[in-house]
Amino acid sequence: MSLDIIPYDKIKYAKIKVKKEELIDMPHAARLQYRLLTNEAIIKAKVHFNEGLIELYYNPKGKENKSLQPKISMEEILKILSDNNVHAKIEDVKEEVVDYKEKLFEPTFHPKEIRRVKPYGW
Amino acid sequence: MHSARVQKVLNMADEKEKEITAPYHRSMEEIEKMPVLGKTKTVCPECKLIIDGIIYRDGDNVMIRKYCPEHGWFIEKYWEDYEMYEKMSKYAYIGRGLENPHTPNLGENCPFDCGLCARHKSHTALANIVVTNRCHLSCWYCFFFAKEGEPIYEPSLEEIKRMLLDLRNEKPVATNALQITGGEPTMREDLVDIVKLAKSVGFDQIQLNTTGINLGFKPDLLVKLRDAGLSTLYMSFDGTTKKTNPKNHWEIPLILKAARQAHVGIVLVPTVIRGINENDLGNMINFALNNIDIVRSVNFQPVSLVGRMPDKLREKQRITIPGAIKLIEEQTHGAIAKEDWFSVPYTGGISKFVEALSGKVTYDLSIHFACGAGTYVFLDTDNRVIPITRFIDAPGLVEHLQNAVYEMEGKGKLQRKMIALKAVAGLRKFVDKEKMPKSVNVTKLLTSILIKHDFSSLGAFHMKTLFLGMMHFQDEYTYDISRVEKCDIHYVMPDGEVLPFCTFNVFPEIYRDKIQRQYSIPQEKWKELHPDWSYQKDKYTRDVAKLEAMKEYHDTYDHLTNFFELPINKKR
User: Fold this and answer.
1) Residue A47 in contact with residue A23, Cβ under 8 Å?
2) Is CATH 3.30.70.100 what the domain over A10-109 is classified as, yes or no?
3) CA distances to A50, A78, A93, B80 from A14, in Å
C-alpha cells in the first residue's frame, strides 16, 4: 500500500435500531460509541440516544474486500453490542455498501458551511 | 542527628509534602462540605463513562472530584492556587467555532464525536501536523514514535498539501499558524519542501517541533528551512542540567549556534514534572535570558499524566499551571511573581477591540482559562528583569478596550474609528513610564497594533522580550469537557478530521493511533520502499565525551549570568 492511496475502497454503512432503554442514557450511549470506536475495523460510529439508533461505517469481512485494514462482520458488531447489554438482531440492521472516499473522505475535506458569525461588537 | 537548621528545612519539606498530598486523602464526607466552584462533564478514567465533575476548593487548592457508578470516586488536583483560579476565570469568554465544521456531528457525545464538530467553540489557532512517527530517540515515556516493527506513518507531500488546505479552508478564520511535528520531523529528507508547501498555501507562522539534535549537526539544513519559510524552532528543553535534560543537554550548544547562524528564533519547551525538574524552572528562564538574542520564549508544559496511573504516582508528579508559576516566583526571588501572569483568554479583550474596529473576524484565543497562562518579561539594558505587568495595568487596559467595544456596537465606520482613536489615546494612563524598560516604547507598540493592525511590530517586540507561557494539557484524571470544547491547538489528520490536542492525545485509541494506523505502512513495506533504511540507522548515538569537550558546550554552560541573583533583581 502506498501512502497516497486511500485506506479503504468499498465499506459498509449500517443503521442499527436499538432499544432506547438499553442505551440507558446519553452518557452510557457516548461510552458505547467510544467502545465501538476502539474496534479497529469500525471506522466511524455514532450512537444516537434519543433516536435509539446506531450508525456505523465499517470495513466488512468478505473475499471481495481487498483492503489490508482490519475487518469485521455485522455478526461480530452485534456481539459487541450484546456484550454491552444492547441487544439487536440482524433484522434491526439496514446496511448498504458505500464508497469510503466519496462518503467519508471527501466530505470531511470539503465541509459545508452551517452558520455565519459576525465580528465582535458588530 | 541533623542540625537545627537542616531539621527546620526538613520539617518545611514535610509540611510542603502534606500541603501537596492532603487534598487527595480526605474523606468524602469532608470533601463534600467544601465550597463548590463549578460543575462540568468529565470522563471516568477507567471506563470512559461521561460523568459529572465537581470543581471545588480545598484550602488553597482547586480540585476536581468525580464519581463513576462502576469505578467509584476519583479526586484530582485541578489548579494549585485558588486566588489565581479566581483571577484567571475573570477573562473567560465563549469564542466561536467553525462555520464549516469538519464533521456533521453536533457533539452530544463529546469528547467521542470529535472532528471538529458544530459544538466546538474555538477556531484553530495553532495546527499541528504530524509528518512522521519515526524518531532518532527512543524516550521511554513517549508514545509518539514508531518502535521497532511498528507501522510507519509518513504522509506524502500530496497528503500533506491536502491537510494544509483543509486547515486553510476553515471559516471564518483560516488557520495561519502551523507546527510541524512528529516523531522527529527532521528525519524526513523532504522537510524543506514541506515548509515551502506550508508557506505557499498561506501559513504565516511555521514552527518546527524538534529535539534540535539533527539541526545542531546540520546547520545548513536550518538555513534552508529558514529560506523555505520556517519561523521558529519549538524545541524540547527539560532543564539546564544533564540530569534534568537528558534528551538534548549536550546538543543544545550546537543548536543555539545553528539558530544564531540561521537567524531562527527558538521556543524552549520544558515538560514540568514534580520530582524531576520542578526545581530547575527559574534556571530555565535564566538560561533563556542568557540567550535572549535567539530564544523568544519558554513555554512550560506541566505534565499531562496520560494513561492509567496509580494514585500515589499521580500525587507525586502532578503539577498544574499555578504550581509551576509559584515555583518560578520562589526560584526567581519574586522577580517574576504569580501576579505577573494572565490567562490566555485575557488577550480576547484586545482581539475583540481590533475586530470591532475593523469589522473583520480576526484571530482569537478563546481557550479555557485553566488551559494556558502567559506573561512577557523584558531584560533591560541595566540587566533588570521586568515583567510587563510591572509597568502596564493589564486588567485596567483590557477593561478600557472592552468598554470601547461596547461603545462601538451598532455605530458606523467613522464613529467606530473615532471611538477607537479616543480609546487608544487613553491607553497612556495604563502605562507607568517610570517603571517601563528603557529599551522599548510600549505605547508606540500598542498604538501600532491596535490602530494600524500592524502585527509586524509585534515581531520586533518579541525580539526584545521573552514570552513565558504555560500550557497544561489534560489527562483522563483532570479531564474537563468544557475545556476541550474550547481548545484551539488542533491536529489535522490524514482523513480530513481536525482534533483538539486533548482528544487526540488523551484518547489515542480512537483518534491519534487509530487514524494514523489507517494511513501507515508496515515496517517491512517501508523497508522495501527504502532499501537503505533500517530502524537502527535512524537512531542517534551520542558521544558525550566529544560533545562535552567542545568549545560551544563550555561557552553555553560555563559562563551563565544568574540574572535573578543580581542585586538589581533581588531587591524588589
Assistant:
1) yes
2) yes
3) 18, 11, 7, 47
Q: Is B484 helix (H, G, I), strand (E, B) or coil?
A: helix
Smallest Cβ–Cβ distance between A108 and the set B406, B495, B519 belongs to: B495
In the structure, what pLDDT confidence band is assigned to residue B14 with cuts at 50, 70 and 90? low
CA distance A82 to A80: 5
Note whether B171 contacts A: Cβ–Cβ < 8 A: yes
Cα Dmax for chain B: 78
Residue B511's Cβ-count burial label (10 Å; 0-12, 13-18, 19+) is buried
In the three-class reduction of DSSP (H, G, I as helix; E, B as strand; rest coil), residue A13 is classed as: strand
Nearest to B112 by CA among B494, B474, B495, B509: B509
Put simply, whether B120 touches A (Cβ < 8 Å) is: no
Å from B445 to nearest chain A CA? 23
Task: Label residue A7 by pLDDT band (50, 70, 90).
Answer: very high
Q: How far is B97 from chain A (nearest CA, A)?
A: 9
pLDDT at B492 over 60: yes
**Does the pLDDT of residue B3 top 60, yes or no?**
no
The percentage of chain B sitting over the pLDDT mark of 70, rounded to a whole number, equals: 93
Distance from CA of A84 to the nearest CA of B (A): 12
B268-284 core/surface letters (b: 16 or more CB in 10 A; e: else): bbbbbbbebbbebbbbb
A27:B166 CB<8 A: no
- Tracing cell 453536533 back to the chain, one arrives at B106
Cα gap B367→B489, rounded to integer Å: 9
Which residues of A fall within a CB distance of 8 Å from B356?
119-122
CA neighbor of B412 nearest in space, from B359, B345, B376: B359
Cβ pair A3:B109 closer than 8 A: no
From B48, B112, B156, residue closest to A4, measured CB to CB? B156
Residue B456: is its pLDDT beyond 80? Answer: no
Mention every residue, 6+ apart, whose C-beta is less than 8 A from residue B138: B145, B147, B539
Q: What crossing angle do the helices spanning B321-331 and B82-89 adopt, rounded to 10°?
A: 110
Instruction: List, in sequence order, every beta strand (DSSP E) within A18-89.
Output: 42-48, 53-58
Q: Say if residue B30's pLDDT is above 60.
A: yes
**Which residues lie closer than 8 Å to A1 by C-beta, 6 or more apart?**
A7, A68, B521, B525
- How large is the average pLDDT for residues B108-124? 96
| Phi/psi at B11 (5° precision) | -60, -40
**Smallest Cβ distance to A111: which of B101, B159, B162?**
B101
Report the mean per-residue pLDDT for chain A.
94
- What is the model's pTM? 0.93
Contacts of B165 in chain A (CB under 8 A): 109
Write out pLDDT tens, residues B388-422: 999 999 999 999 999 999 999 889 889 998 999 99
CB pairs under 8 A between A and B: 117
- Whether B345 and chain A come into contact, CB under 8 Å, resolves to no
**Domain residues of chain A, as ranges?**
10-109
Chain length of chain B: 572
Q: Which residues in chain A are closer than 8 Å to B415, comparing Cβ atoms?
A: none
Instruction: Looking at the complex, report in whole angstroms how far the Cα of residue B72 sits from the nearest Cα belonging to chain A.
Output: 16
Query: Which grid cell is B490?
Result: 488542533
Answer whether B166 touches A (CB < 8 Å).
yes
Q: Find which of B108, B366, B403 to mutate to test the A interface (most A CBs within 10 Å of its CB).
A: B108
